[in-house]
Amino acid sequence: MSIKVGIVDTTFARVDMGSVAEKTLKEIAPNALIYRYTVPGIKDIPVAAKKLIEEKGCDGVITLGWVGSTLTDKLSYVVASLALQLVQLKTNKHIIDVTVHEDEAEKPEELVKIALDRTVKHCRNLVTLVTQGGEGLRRYAGKGLRQGREDVGPLTKT
Amino acid sequence: MSIKVGIVDTTFARVDMGSVAEKTLKEIAPNALIYRYTVPGIKDIPVAAKKLIEEKGCDGVITLGWVGSTLTDKLSYVVASLALQLVQLKTNKHIIDVTVHEDEAEKPEELVKIALDRTVKHCRNLVTLVTQGGEGLRRYAGKGLRQGREDVGPLTKT
Amino acid sequence: MSIKVGIVDTTFARVDMGSVAEKTLKEIAPNALIYRYTVPGIKDIPVAAKKLIEEKGCDGVITLGWVGSTLTDKLSYVVASLALQLVQLKTNKHIIDVTVHEDEAEKPEELVKIALDRTVKHCRNLVTLVTQGGEGLRRYAGKGLRQGREDVGPLTKT
Amino acid sequence: MSIKVGIVDTTFARVDMGSVAEKTLKEIAPNALIYRYTVPGIKDIPVAAKKLIEEKGCDGVITLGWVGSTLTDKLSYVVASLALQLVQLKTNKHIIDVTVHEDEAEKPEELVKIALDRTVKHCRNLVTLVTQGGEGLRRYAGKGLRQGREDVGPLTKT
Amino acid sequence: MSIKVGIVDTTFARVDMGSVAEKTLKEIAPNALIYRYTVPGIKDIPVAAKKLIEEKGCDGVITLGWVGSTLTDKLSYVVASLALQLVQLKTNKHIIDVTVHEDEAEKPEELVKIALDRTVKHCRNLVTLVTQGGEGLRRYAGKGLRQGREDVGPLTKT
Question: Is residue D158 situated within a structural domain?
């Protein structure tokens, strides 16, 4: 049985993370049905994610936000991100809320790198959660994994 | 079949964005039924938007807030904006939450320019979302579009 | 048919805005039934407003909060104000969330002036919204009205 | 008919405000049934308050939180306090959300004084609200009452 | 009758707090059924906690988050933590929302120590709450207990 995965991305973003996610999901879950929904900015994402779950029957969604560096942008991030929590709690489905913040890097090429790495890794996380539930990531628990940058690793040896 | 679009604006705003939105919507969606609701300030917007959707049957709403530059204003923005998320999640309709912040520009004429540009562009976004769903903005995904200012463009060539 | 209007005020406030609201409402809406509910502080306001709507049948409510100047006070403002949004969205009734912040003015007499002006003007706003809906304030849309201070006016001539 | 009042307190607090509240409530409402629920910290308070109302039938609850002075502590305060609003709106019962913040005073003895005064005065407020509704505090409206410190009084003579 | 306890942990964390919690719970509640759910980061925790309660029937859950030191991390903490409140209020079950913040200590070994101590002590708190309700922690009320560090004790003798 194939899974259904949703992608919500924005026209505000400066990297086409949606297409990267689409390509990645097709590679790691070739049988998955993929639904994509493009909105203007991060505050338009939550209702789109909800519609993908409720109207398209998605088993999980990855959302790809791009956040400016002003205080207003940060506040909008809180608003959008909290609404994504509400969608998850309403539907009992995972939504991986990926965001790239413009204050994460000084150079554009670094921001691009963060966006691509974060998108790809979180696509994998989403597929693992959707197909294997809470067991699939067990072996990485506490391992200091990072998306967007290199893993920092655990602070202790186990 | 014509669409129904709601506009919520405020008496606090220093630019009559509601009339601009009304005019813009009539141009780009001549058959649309347009409902307008004017409230005092941003914290009065969410229930008005909800009433336009539930009582007038609007398929989508554009809200036009004006936000002062104090910390209290910013906090009120969070409050209003989060409530607009709740309305969207309750109704599964898009509400484009347009706000102009007084700290975005130093000169009044620049604020006016931002307000007009943002209103017009987001009217287009709303009509696209309401009439074409998540597909309509696909070709602009990750293109660094901006409302209120010129587009900044994508960081990568695709 | 007379309207029912609720007033929620606090013992924390340093101006008896509740009595001012009561007097103002009686003047501008002589047939209105007025319900008043006094609570200790702003965080006690939302449930009181909800009770006035659900148990007394109020068509709209004005709440009169007084906010200290510490970070904790500001955070409490967010909490109370967001809860007032929830009440509005639950009941589809307008609640005008009036607050006076102690950092708005240095001199006590100025704070008093702000409190009185804001209360009176928002009483008018509430009655307009309750009796005329979203049309009543249309002519002031984008006019830069202020409550607590003088109107700043629009930035453009229309 | 006796009222039922709930007390939620924490092991994080450095003053046993729960016992103070219990003693105070017994003095001012000798016939009241008192339920007490002790949790680790402020984020554990809301569900406890909800259970006291829904499972024990409490007519009102006083919660006694103690908040550290870091940014994380302040954010946790927002989270807990907002959740207490949700409980109130769900149940239509007053919950007086008492908190003592470690940055309110420099000396421990002053913090103790604040904690005791605030607890005692808010117990009185709760009993008044539960037994007399929105009328009971009317005569103190706008009087600048404070809990934890001396009343500051009104800014105007009425 | 055995209790069911859930553990939600992350791959972002740099200490395997989930395994520590699992071991601790087995020691202090040998008959407990333990369910573990590993997610990428803190924003993925709330829906996992909800699923453990609703789908596995957990009587209580401990969540183990790791929070970076940027403003964005702090905001994500608020978002996740507030969502955990919503899960508690929806289910009337305690969720102990444990988080370790990277700005709590300068040295890695100190962070590890905090993580371990906090996890162990809060496992005890959870079992006490689940098995004894609001009475179990009564004797520690106001005692200035700390998790992650040594107890600071009460400010007054009782």
Answer: no
For C98, the 3-state DSSP assignment is: strand
Q: Is the CB of B155 less than 8 angstroms away from the CB of A38? A: no
Is the separation of the CB atoms in A52 and A61 below 8 Å?
yes
**Closest-approach residue (CA) in chain D for E71:** D71
Q: What is the pTM of this model?
A: 0.98
In chain A, residues 119-158 whose CB comes closer than 8 Å to chain E? 122, 125, 129, 133-138, 140-147, 152-156, 158
Instruction: Give strand pairing partners of E36.
Output: E7
Residue E37 phi, psi dihedral angles, 5° rounding: -140, 115
Angle subtended by helix axes E71-91 and A71-91, to nearest 10: 30
Number of domains forming the structure of chain A: 1
* Chain E: residue whose CA lies nearest to A140: E11
Residue A143: list chain E partners with CB under 8 A.
Answer: 11, 16
Asked if E72 reaches chain D (Cβ–Cβ under 8 Å), the answer is: no
Number of B–C residue contacts, CB under 8 Å: 125
**Which residues of chain E fall short of a pLDDT of 50?**
none
Edge-to-edge strand ranges of the sheet holding A4-10: A33-39, A4-10, A60-67, A94-101
Residue D46 has pLDDT above 90, yes or no: yes
Type of residue at D51: K
- Interchain proximity A79–B86, CB inside 8 Å: no
Q: Supply the mean pLDDT for chain C.
A: 97
pLDDT at residue D156, as a whole number: 87
Residue D1, pLDDT score = 62
Strands across the sheet with B94-101, in order? Answer: B33-39, B4-10, B60-67, B94-101
One-letter amino acid for residue E68 of the chain? G
Q: pLDDT-based confidence at C156, cuts 50/70/90?
A: confident
Q: Alpha-carbon distance D51 to D35, whole Å? A: 11
Chain C to chain D Cβ contacts (< 8 Å)? 125
The C-alpha atoms of residue E24 and residue E19 are separated, in whole angstroms, by 8
pLDDT bucket at B1, cuts 50 / 70 / 90: low
In a domain, C110, yes or no: yes
Q: Is residue C112 part of a domain?
A: yes
Which chain B positions have a beta carbon within 8 Å of A58's beta carbon? none
The Cα–Cα gap between D126 and B92 comes to: 39
Q: Which residues contact C106 (CB under 8 A, 6 or more apart)?
A: none
Q: What CATH number is associated with residue E29?
A: 3.40.50.960
d(CA E88, CA E95): 6
Strands D4-10 and C60-67, by their bridges, are: unpaired
Which residues span the domain enclosing B110? 4-140
Convert the pLDDT of each residue in D80-126 to its tens digit: 999 999 999 999 999 999 999 999 999 999 999 999 999 999 999 99
How do the pLDDT tens digits run along chain A, 158 residues long? 689 999 999 999 999 999 999 999 999 999 999 999 999 999 999 999 999 999 999 999 999 999 999 999 999 999 999 999 999 999 999 999 999 999 999 999 999 999 999 999 999 999 999 999 999 999 999 999 999 999 999 998 75
In a domain, B116, yes or no: yes
- Alpha carbons B145 and C6: distance in angstroms, whole number: 45
Q: Name the residue among D77, D101, D154 with its Cβ closest to that of C16.
A: D154
Location of structure tokens 């608003």:
A79
C78:D78 CB<8 A: yes
With contacts defined as CB-CB under 8 Å, which chain E residues touch D15? 142, 154-156
User: What digits encode the pLDDT tens for the residues B46-103?
Assistant: 999 999 999 999 999 999 999 999 999 999 999 999 999 999 999 999 999 999 999 9
Neighbours of chain D (3+ CB pairs under 8 A): C, E
